[in-house]
Amino acid sequence: ALHRFLGTPEVQDVIKEMKEEQRSLSSMEMVSVWQLLRDRSVRWQTLSVAVVNAGMQLSGIDAIWFYTNTIFENAGIPVSQIPYTTMGTGAIEVVAGLIGCFTIERVGRRPLIITGFCAMGVCSAGITISLLLQAALPWMRYVSVACVVGIIAGFCMGPAGVPFLMTAELFMQSHRPAAYIVGGSLNWLCNFTVGFIFPFLQMSAGAFCYLVFCGVCLLVALYVYFVIPETKNKTFMEISHIFA
């Protein structure tokens, strides 16, 4: 398995390091969520898990999924064609997810998640522009649909799955359960928040509501670029030293 994963026959050093880590963890107790939040040695890892998981939902992907038909209707797509458009976005979602699965070990975690959030941010801004101009330029309705597809594709390629993998790679075994609780709780809390407030945000801000999601996506991408290291083929010890 290590030969295939690392692409080299020289794996004895890796096995030795794994055994040393196993011995060091054999007498270590699992930490609680409160202990994790108070542990200053992993505070940047904990903050990174919180930022990425919250940004995953605050990026606006839930607004796109929950209200896709409404968005298409506001974009001027005929009601009879909306189901076919929705089916098309579902197919794009599957293809983008497969691309992410097959490329993550080749290109790394950071490029996928940064590219995904940047694509979502640009497409969110594109939806705002298309909705503002579609009255004067009827063809802008198709730009709006393309931007919706772009948001879904960008999300499925990186932000949809990479945060869960990065959570496991940023912490040693004693901290991982608590880290997953923190990340998962923030994930679902932000999911509920976006689903609840989006209709009110849309009524108050109109087309400009998507600029909020654009800002969130770009800020998360900048955080990942400047703070989170690449974790591909790195041990926890190496990642911890990089954070330090």
From TrEMBL:
Subcellular location(s) of the protein: Membrane
Keyword Transmembrane: yes
Domain of life: Eukaryota
One MF annotation (Gene Ontology) recorded for this entry: D-glucose transmembrane transporter activity
InterPro entries, sorted: GLUT (IPR045263), MFS_dom (IPR020846), MFS_sugar_transport-like (IPR005828), MFS_trans_sf (IPR036259)
Membrane topology note: Multi-pass membrane protein
Lipid metabolism found in the keyword field: no
Domain Major facilitator superfamily (MFS) profile stretches: 1-232
Biological process, per Gene Ontology: D-glucose import; dehydroascorbic acid transport
Keywords in alphabetical order: Membrane, Transmembrane, Transmembrane helix
PROSITE patterns according to UniProt: MFS
Signal peptide start and end residues: none
One cellular component (GO) term of this entry: plasma membrane
TM regions (residue ranges): 47-67, 87-105, 112-133, 139-166, 178-201, 207-228
Protein name: GTR9 protein
Native source species: Oxylabes madagascariensis (white-throated Oxylabes)
Highest classification ranks of the organism: Eukaryota, Metazoa, Chordata, Craniata, Vertebrata
Gene that this sequence comes from: Slc2a9_2
